[in-house]
Design brief:
Length: 315
């Protein structure tokens, strides 16, 4: 299936920017849909990228955005509810609208970002809403083939995960940590983007779901210590017992920025790792955390791209 045009929802976000850059490098025409055009300033310089202002929750606007598009990539997601944004609207209702708009516009391939741990009986509302979105996407297969991606936490320059801890270790010699024993299998954002690009129009990837994880699992405490060491800091991690962890999550939930919520803590009660090997269909092995993170935490912006260049060259 030849894919020449792709519409991205959530294209101005962390993963979306990486996918748009890789698609543009291959000469594929990309339409990025955003409510606020100013957020797409970094993408407008890419030669094949078109930025369109639209409300993705409006079915008519969504159909117009999908017109003449071979494929659609839905990356819309939130970690915290707030204001007018709810898990139900972003993760369950929007995928249903995306599926309907794909049908109406004749889109030939729908690629959907879910999350590792998504399940109808999952402990957190975030995970349960992601599962509802997967159900909506799978129901489209008779008309629009789909590919679902379920990554663990995604790291890279500018991420909100390791980047948060990098900021904390600069200021605090001791970090009280809720969910310190929760396990994750982080994957580099460039590798996630590469999987999306390889899957586009690939017959082997149609109507399939893939768990995307890096080569090694870590506890949350191990990740904080790694970030501290990579930043040249000596930081002690204090693992909080469950009652104090819930108190911390409650307090952080009510601060500006919502660094953590009680729903996030419930998500961490289930290990965010995969027992399956990295999918062979993508034709590469994901980069280890240790090969990427130190360079962008301590390097210049230019040096931070070196891991990508080496990884793409097979070194």
């Amino acid at each position: 299936m030849r894919i020449a045009t792709v519409c991205i929802l959530g294209g101005t976000g962390f993963v979306g920017r990486a996918i748009a850059e890789q698609l543009a490098a291959r000469g594929i025409r990309v339409r990025v849909v955003t409510r606020v055009v100013a957020r797409a300033a970094a993408l407008r310089v890419l030669p094949t990228v078109e930025v369109v202002a639209a409300n993705p929750q409006d079915p008519a606007q969504l159909r117009a955005c999908f017109d003449n598009m071979d494929a659609v990539i839905n990356l819309v997601g939130i970690l915290h509810e707030g204001g007018r944004q709810s898990f139900e609207d972003c993760h369950a209702e929007l995928p249903r609208k995306v599926v309907e708009a794909c049908h109406a516009s004749g889109v030939r391939h729908l690629l959907h970002m879910s999350a590792l741990g998504a399940a109808e009986d999952a402990p957190s509302a975030y995970q349960r809403s992601k599962a509802k979105g997967e159900v909506a996407v799978r129901a489209s297969s008779s008309i629009t083939p789909y590919t679902i991606f379920r990554p663990s936490v995604i790291f890279g320059e500018g991420d909100r995960f390791l980047g948060l801890f990098a900021g904390m270790v600069r200021w605090f010699p001791v970090i009280p940590l809720a969910g310190a024993r929760a396990r994750f299998q982080p994957i580099w954002v460039e590798d996630v983007a590469r999987c999306f690009v390889v899957a586009l129009g690939n017959p082997a990837c149609l109507d399939k779901s893939y768990e995307l994880c890096g080569p090694r699992a870590y506890t949350l405490a191990e990740l904080v210590r790694f970030v501290a060491a990579s930043s040249g800091r000596r930081t002690r991690v204090l693992a909080l017992p469950a009652p104090l962890a819930r108190v911390q999550a409650f307090m952080l939930e009510h601060l500006p920025g919502k660094l953590m919520t009680r729903d996030n803590l419930r998500s961490m009660s289930v290990d965010n790792v995969s027992a399956a090997p990295f999918p062979e269909v993508f034709g590469f092995q994901p980069a280890p955390l240790e090969a990427v993170v130190p360079e962008y935490l301590v390097g210049t912006a230019a040096r931070a791209r070196y891991p990508l260049y080496r990884h793409n060259a097979g070194r």
